[in-house]
Amino acid sequence: MLSRKDFEKLDKNDNLKDFRSKFSLPEGLIYFDGNSLGAMPKEAALRANEVVVKEWGHDLIQSWNKAGWFHLTEKIGNKIAKLIGANEGEVICTDATGLNLFKILAVALKMRPERKIILMEGSNFPTDNYTAQGLSQIMGQGHEVKFAEKNDILEAITEDVAVVSLTQVHYKKGHLLDMKAITKKAHQVGALIIWDLCHSAGALPIDLNGCDVDFAVGCTYKYLNGGPGSPAFLFVASRHQGKETQPLTGWWGHKAPFLFEQDYEQAKTIWQFLTGTQPILSLATAEVGIDIMVSADMEEIRKKSIKMSDLFIQLIDENLKEYDFCIASPLNSAERGSQISLYSENGYPIIKALIAAGVVGDFRAPDIMRFGFTPLYLKYTDLWDAVQRLKVIMENDVWKKAEFNEVSSVT
Ligand SMILES: *Cc1c(COP(=O)(O)O)cnc(C)c1O
């Protein structure tokens, strides 16, 4: 049986423990939702103040040059590149994930004009699937989204598939797909691959170029701690840049925006994937979180994440056996990202009762309770304390209270 002492010892010997003080976390709160909205780096508040008061308030329009605003999206992209196994000039930080997927998928489909199938995981975070469906419709060329689930994906990658578009770590169950094997299979049949890294960037080591990936997208507000609605990123392997035109052809993607020419001519670099003026405040604060992540050792992050999730499973097993929390995530740590999901038909009120007790996880319909592990700011003792609070809630039927059974607009 584990005891709190074991967790205290792990905290003492934790190589990443100094990172926690870089984040703003309310006293006593245990935060397992960094896979949905990462914690705020303390420095982000100072940076926001500097951008507003000095760069905007004092230097005004000069800041496009003087403060480097114009190149921020590319500068941050190059930092993200280091986290995902990409080279300089292959990543840009802009727009929302769904928008980036729209632009990239359009380019990928143009590169395989004779094929009509887009292969996706049906149970994936829906915006990716919605985007592919919307794009297929607007293109009007008979494209069709075909769905496969985890164990059937390799088999479903056949010679009629134009593009395989998958999320590396599943948002709900946390399973990790084999990027190398799936990318290889896609290429073997002549298809292109797009990886969504929303639940893996900043959570585990990623090697896009080592896996020969064509395209990728991802957000920065989850494990990269970029802030609510911070711009997402996109990766385009250099061999695919400056060829097919993406559909949102705004002035920022023009090869010379400040010549204000009449006709669109795309940039030959990753800039071709920009559309319009970028949200500088959001980019500037996102950069702070990304800088912290770049300064950490991703192998250490992965090691701690695995240790935490294994311990969490053990704690559930040792303390809450009689409540039938089924583990929805793979039990083998090599097959999952940085979260553990539990099935429970009463998941919604239980999560609400937990939040009221200062343990923030979240709920995904119809029956999944999610706990995300963010090694830079979570302590091992947080695991112990959270499970003890969950035990109190279960033993005393706290979750049955009416206040925990009313549905809020954001779950
Ligand atoms: C979080 C998440 C998104 C977010 O999409 P936005 O367009 O940035 O809101 C997209 N895809 C996946 C797989 C996600 O987990």
Count of DSSP E strands?
Answer: 15
**Relative helix content:** 25-40%
Number of domains: 2
| Element-by-element helix/strand order | HEEEHHHEHEHEHEHEEEHHEEHEEEH
Mean pLDDT, to the nearest integer, reads 97
Identify the CATH architecture of the largest domain.
Answer: 3-Layer(aba) Sandwich
- Biggest sheet: strands, sense, closure? 7 strands, mixed
Strand residues, percent: 5-15%
Distance between the termini: 33 Å
**What is the CATH superfamily of the largest domain?**
Type I PLP-dependent aspartate aminotransferase-like (Major domain)
Bound molecules: pyridoxal-5'-phosphate
- Return the structural class: alpha/beta
Q: Note the total helix count.
A: 12
Q: Radius of gyration from the CA trace?
A: 22 Å
Shape: globular
Low-confidence stretches: none
Q: Look at the structure and give the CATH class of the largest domain.
A: Alpha Beta
- CATH fold description of the largest domain: Aspartate Aminotransferase, domain 2
The strand order across the widest sheet is 4-10-9-8-7-5-6
Which features does this protein show?
single chain; 411 residues; alpha/beta; Aspartate Aminotransferase, domain 1; Aspartate Aminotransferase, domain 2; 2 domains; 7-stranded mixed beta sheet; 4-stranded antiparallel beta sheet; 12 helices; 15 strands; globular; binds pyridoxal-5'-phosphate
Write a structural description.
This protein folds into 2 domains: 4-16 and 297-404, Aspartate Aminotransferase, domain 1; 46-295, 3-Layer(aba) Sandwich (Aspartate Aminotransferase, domain 2). Helices cover 36% and strands 14% of the residues. It has 12 helices and 15 strands. The strands form 4 sheets. The protein has a 7-stranded mixed β-sheet with strand order 4-10-9-8-7-5-6, with helices on both faces. A hairpin with a 3-residue loop joins strand 14 (362-364) and strand 15 (368-372). Helix 4 (72-84) packs parallel to helix 9 (280-295), helix 5 (97-111) crosses helix 6 and helix 10 runs parallel beside helix 12. The radius of gyration is 22 Å and the shape is globular. The model has no long low-confidence stretch (mean pLDDT 97). The chain binds pyridoxal-5'-phosphate. Pyridoxal-5'-phosphate binds at residues 96-98, 125, 127-128, 167, 171, 196, 198-199, 219, 232. The site of pyridoxal-5'-phosphate has 13 residues, from helix 5 and helix 6.
